[in-house]
Design the sequence.
């Protein structure tokens, strides 16, 4: 008999590829220091001065209870409700917002509130690699469903065919990690119509978890529609870590769609405190809560990200790389030369260039590049991208 719970073992199996990659990557960087690190969305330059100023300002106590226990502080939740109302065009209220430790905490809160043991959650493939382990701990089942192979749109037919009487949540990640796809209002409306019909068919409500941590990182003036605008049974998770390029600041929230029928809306509102406590006091640290208005007004340089996007797309394209043009996020997604992303990543690693192989996303033919690398890193890495591509053709 195992010492640990089966759910913990299931979570470990789900995240094993990521853990293995991260362990090997960390060891490799120690031996071959990075010329360019395109793996995780970590900062490669000093933090934004405005972020540092906000943290310093709000770390200075202004009352004896400055560092007392915090929950969903009314001032912060009221501010975020107003900010979301302006951004998404929906009438959010203070009680619709639950402050969490990043998007991770918000997703955990959603799973705790909505999932029973044995429930199923549909997630996009390729997609973020942590849903499965979180679902395993919740006693639920991850059901990966491929996106449309042509353009990474939602494949409504594939989603529909994957729905069973146990389906409880469909994850919609927009802008999408790793491809950068942003789903249109028409596409989301078609999904909403299908889920409404399927909910009636199975006699049980199917929810959308709208995973939106990259919502404010968009290119070319492309707009954004949240699934919450077209499907009332939607919960939104958000993280400040992306727009601030400060993932170590664990600040986010879970928001209830204000179009949800009032009785259900109030039921979820009433659960906020209890679920956050059950999830391990899933509330950000006090200074981060105080700093929310300042941090909400801060952003990394989207113009610089767009410039790096164009530089890499142009260079890689001329060497034969088949890349997807991202509409949002700070990633590029493309096909590895020869179709073996692990071998491709290993070749680059020999030169101190680190990319994330698509095998982490269950797409072993592809790879991801993070645009948070500096301009100098990109220029230093490009000759090695060229050499690997030419070696493959040769």
Sequence:
């Amino acid at each position: 008999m195992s010492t640990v719970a089966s759910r913990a073992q299931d979570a470990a199996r789900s995240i094993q590829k990521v853990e293995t990659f991260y362990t090997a990557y960390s060891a490799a960087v120690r031996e071959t220091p990075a010329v360019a690190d395109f793996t995780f969305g970590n900062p490669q330059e000093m933090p934004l001065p405005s972020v540092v100023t906000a943290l310093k300002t709000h770390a200075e106590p202004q009352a004896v209870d400055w560092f007392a226990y915090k929950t969903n502080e009314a001032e912060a939740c009221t501010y975020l409700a107003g900010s979301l109302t302006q951004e998404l065009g929906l009438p959010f209220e203070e009680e619709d917002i639950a402050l969490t430790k990043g998007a991770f905490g918000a997703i955990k809160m959603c799973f705790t509130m909505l999932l029973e043991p044995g429930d199923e959650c549909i997630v996009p493939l390729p997609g973020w690699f942590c849903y499965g382990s979180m679902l395993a701990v919740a006693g639920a089942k991850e059901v990966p469903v491929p996106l449309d192979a042509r353009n990474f749109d939602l494949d409504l037919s594939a989603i529909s065919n994957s729905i069973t009487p146990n389906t409880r949540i469909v994850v919609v990640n927009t802008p999408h990690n790793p491809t950068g796809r942003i789903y249109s209002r028409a596409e989301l409306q078609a999904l909403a119509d299908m889920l409404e019909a399927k909910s009636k068919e199975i006699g049980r409500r199917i929810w959308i978890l709208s995973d939106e941590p990259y919502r404010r990182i968009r290119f070319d003036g492309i707009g954004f529609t949240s699934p919450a605008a077209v499907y009332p049974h939607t919960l939104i998770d958000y993280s400040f870590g992306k727009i601030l390029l400060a993932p170590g600041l664990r600040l986010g929230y879970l928001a209830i769609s204000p179009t949800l029928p009032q009785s259900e809306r109030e039921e979820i509102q009433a659960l906020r405190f209890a679920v956050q406590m059950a999830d391990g006091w899933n509330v950000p640290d006090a200074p981060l809560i105080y700093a929310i208005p300042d941090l909400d007004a801060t952003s990394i340089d989207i113009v610089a990200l767009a410039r790096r996007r164009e530089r890499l797309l142009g260079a890689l394209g001329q060497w034969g790389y088949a890349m997807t043009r991202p509409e949002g996020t700070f990633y590029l997604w493309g096909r590895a030369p020869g179709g073996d992303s692990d071998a491709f990543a290993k070749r680059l690693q020999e030169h101190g260039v680190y990319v994330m192989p698509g095998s982490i996303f269950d797409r072993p033919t592809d790879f991801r590049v993070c645009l948070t690398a500096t301009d100098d890193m990109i220029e230093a890495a490009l000759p090695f991208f060229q050499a690997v591509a030419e070696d493959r053709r040769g």
